[in-house]
Amino acid sequence: MSDTSVGQSGRVLIVAGEASSSLYAQRILEAWQSAGRKVDAFGIGSREMESLGFRRLGKSEEMAVVGLSEVIKHFPLIRRVYHSLLDECDRVKPDFALLLDYPDFNLRLAKDLKKRGIKVVYYISPQVWAWRRGRVKLIKKVVDEILVLFPFEEAFYREHGMKVSFVGHPLLDELVKRDNERKSVPALRREKFGIQPFETVLGLMPGSRESELKHHLQDQLAAAELLVKRYPQVRPVLLCAPTIERERLQGEVSNLSVPVQIIKADPLDMIEMCDVLLVASGTATLMVGLLEKPMVIMYRMSPITAWFAKRLVTHTKYFGMVNLILEKEAMRELFQEAASPEGMATELEQLLDETVRRKKVIDLQHLKEKLGAVGATSRVVARLEEYFKK
Predict the structure, then answer these.
(1) Looking at the whole model, is its pTM more than 0.85?
(2) Are 39 and 12 in contact (CB under 8 A)?
(3) For the chain, what is the HEC assignment?
(4) Closest Cα to residue 160, out of 148, 178, 177, 172?
(5) What is the mean pLDDT of each run of 10 residues along the chain (390 residues)?
(6) Which of 223, 238, 328, 381 is deepest in the core (most CB within 10 A)?
(7) Domains and CATH numbers, the chain
(8) Measured between alpha carbons, how far is residue 245 from residues 17, 77, 242, 350 in Å?
């Protein structure tokens, strides 16, 4: 893929610093490859991107940190990767930069890229409509075009005079891709993991970042223990994110009073096996919602980061993506102290009632209609054509 000597060619800096954004970047690389476009793509991404010829100067699994204390701890790595990106841009002069999510890093990078005359396309908007709205002024200065996932984001950026395109959500593409693959590859079956028909499967999704595991995993496991002691038919399974090694989780479950099974497979397949889920806020909530699985959404962070977050998030009532889209607390949210093991177990207990679960599913059935049509990746690729140097 790095051979740019024949056919349509180009050089692109891609920064996908998180698990979800690296998947969407991977799909773009695959689309270029399928179309015969030879692209020398480099930057921050996943192992899967690297297998497609992507030159990985930074690893998304190492860069995905959240919270002030975590950023400080990883600052030497972040700074080193940051400067390596700029050095490579100076060396090869990319046609443009495609920055995905990861706003604190990417907006600073965009400023330095603009100084070098490199056009910047931003895919997956920073949530400036929810908090720190002043950043939209910076985005307007340093970003040439922003590609957004939700219709309300398009309206927001248009009001601020930005070049913006609503492309829809790429998760819809993933659902279609998965359904097509199932014609030849069967879905995961609960029986394969020894799950009995009478058991209610509780999926635990503590997050895809190391910092999220630190703040969420033990409390989610403790909540599962409490629930199983009250309801023995509950079967907890720990869903391992693509960026996390299974071995990293093994030691965490070994001393529990109830067995917790670790499963690592396609995220959508794992979610579909579950009846109810306890999910760290993020893209995972949207995956769960699109599969119409009832959930409790939680998030914990360091006290100092939480203090700042409570003061900065002033334009929305909710933090769970599902609730933001549906514009109501369709799924229960628990933040910081409220996301205690007891608090989470109590909320999950409500979802063991089938009548309550059915009502939650009805709410989730409205999600797809709010996310646009299938084909987000194709629309992104089409928009990016404008930025390749002819």
Answers:
(1) no
(2) yes
(3) CCCCCCCCEEEEEEEECCHHHHHHHHHHHHHHHHHCCEEEEEEEECHHHHHCCCEEEEEHHHHCCCCHHHHHHCHHHHHHHHHHHHHHHHHHCCCEEEEECCHHHHHHHHHHHHHCCCEEEEECCCCCCCECCCHHHHHHHHCCEEEECCHHHHHHHHHCCCCEEECCCCHHHHHHHHHHHCCCCCCCCHHHHCCCCCCEEEEEECCCCHHHHHHHHHHHHHHHHHHHHHCCCEEEEEECCCCCCHHHHHHHHCCCCCCCEEECCCHHHHHHHCCEEEEECCHHHHHHHHCCCCEEEEECCCHHHHHHHHHHECCCCCCCHHHHHHCCCCCCEEEHHHCCHHHHHHHHHHCCCHHHHHHHHHHHCCCHHHCCCCCHHHHHHHHHHHHCCC
(4) 148
(5) 54 92 96 96 96 96 65 81 97 97 91 97 79 77 95 88 94 88 68 89 90 89 96 95 83 86 90 95 91 94 66 65 88 92 96 92 88 91 93
(6) 223
(7) 9-170+375-387 (3.40.50.2000), 190-370 (3.40.50.2000)
(8) 17, 20, 8, 32
